[in-house]
Amino acid sequence: MNTREETGRATSDTTVAVELAEAAGELLLRIRVEGLGSIDGRELGRRGDGAANTFILEELAARRPGDVVLSEESADDRSRLDADRVWIIDPVDGSKEYGIAGRSDWAVHVALWERGRGVTAAAVAQPALAVVYSTDDEIRRGNESGSPTIVVSGSRPPSFTAAVASELNAEVVHMGSAGAKAMAVVRGDVDAYLHAGGQWEWDSAAPVGVALAQGLHCSRIDGSPLLYNQSHPYLPDLVICRPELADSILHAIAEHAAEHAAEHGESAVSGPVAMAREYVKALTSHDATKVRFAAQAWRIENGTRTGESGAAISNDLEQGARYRAIKAVRELTLRESVGGVVARYLLDVHGSTEPTRVTEYFAMVAGEIESVTSIAEPG
User: Fold this and answer.
1) Residues in the chain with pLDDT < 70?
2) Residue 258: which of 185, 321, 164, 345 has the closest Cα?
3) pLDDT at residue number 8
4) In 13, 28, 48, 198, which residue has its Cα 20 to 30 A from 116's Cα atom?
5) What value does the mean pLDDT of the chain take?
6) Pair 218, 301 in one domain
7) Could you tell me the residue range of the domain that residue 250 belongs to?
8) How confident is the model at residue 10, as a pLDDT?
9) Are residues 130 and 7 both part of a single domain?
């Protein structure tokens, strides 16, 4: 077990992860009780994310001052790429579910990655269930028999889910939060968790760390290892399952993933392309919570500067009247270019019979959009 001296005593990294996940969960529960029913669920998620992130960062700075942090809610500190110890955190995994009364499928993730060793300490808290799972736990699962149960995202299930379930004669259930789904496998409530709709390192680092410590199989959907603290933190897919099911699940995915990708126009995408896609999706969803902007990001549209910071652009996507006029995005193509991504698509706008043709260039560094340059032409 890895230890560091902390205020005169040795505290294990796993203990730190557990204590921070548990305390952040308690903080989130208080914020949730105060906000549910009085503020919008999306805003409640933002408040919870921000408060939990600040708390965890401050605690890590005090307890592990020499370590680096990669967090969903903070700018990417590129010094992590040369660091030997990097904490990977998601202050609220499942912020949508967090903002909905009665939902318990959200979590807090705290994981430590060490060079040459991978994830060595991790904790996943499910505050609404009053439980914390860690890499030090010994969880006894019963002997499983009968048809397996597969859990997938309720909003973004893999396109091959039905085909894989049919081949395995498996039942499919839906749930929010990667951490909640992974811990359902850890507890033995379900037999496997499949995801292929796009994720980031903070979505899976802690759940995978806990699952591996329990002897479960964890990999990409092609069977390759899940690698963390990479230059770009995009890590779009995973399989977590009982080890005896791994071969049959990976075989079924290999059989069906390619054909469903072709049928649905899907293909493997890079992290920058995935982030550009999230921006374009926000034009119609008016939800920019998944779009990561650099703090000093800027935007130019048809030669006019329309954004002076990441926060301003994000707010504009969600609240701007001109974006509310957009009905649909059609014929989207995304192509990775030098230092960024080029997007081309058609916009259908209320009050116009002709679509607007848009070409945009997204300048990217790691997982963040630094600038957006847009040209919009009628017809």
Assistant:
1) 1-10, 140-145, 259-269, 379
2) 164
3) 39
4) 198
5) 90
6) no
7) 149-263
8) 63
9) yes
Q: Are 135 and 209 in contact (CB under 8 A)?
A: yes
Beta bridge partners of 362: 341, 372
3-state secondary structure of 168: helix
pLDDT (0 to 100) of residue 1: 44
pLDDT of residue 266: 46
Specify the pTM.
Answer: 0.83
294 in a structural domain = yes
- Give the contacts of 172 (CB within 8 A, at least 6 positions apart): 149, 150, 151, 152, 157, 161, 162, 165
C-alpha–C-alpha distance, residues 44 and 103, integer Å = 14
Position 314 in a domain: yes
Residue with tokens 């607007």: 356
CA distance 24 to 1: 23
| Domain shared by 57 and 123, yes or no | yes
Residue 141 lies in a domain: no
Q: What is the pLDDT of residue 7?
A: 43
Predicted pLDDT at 80: 96
Angle formed at CA 285 by CA 279 and CA 290, multiple of 5 degrees: 45
373 and 281 fall within a common domain: yes
Residue count of the chain: 379
- Among candidates 81, 73, 91, which has minimal Cα distance to 24? 91
Q: Residue 119 sits in a domain of what CATH number? A: 3.30.540.10
Token representation of residue 288: 């920019």
Count of the separate structural domains present in the chain: 3
The reported pLDDT for the residue numbered 174 is 95
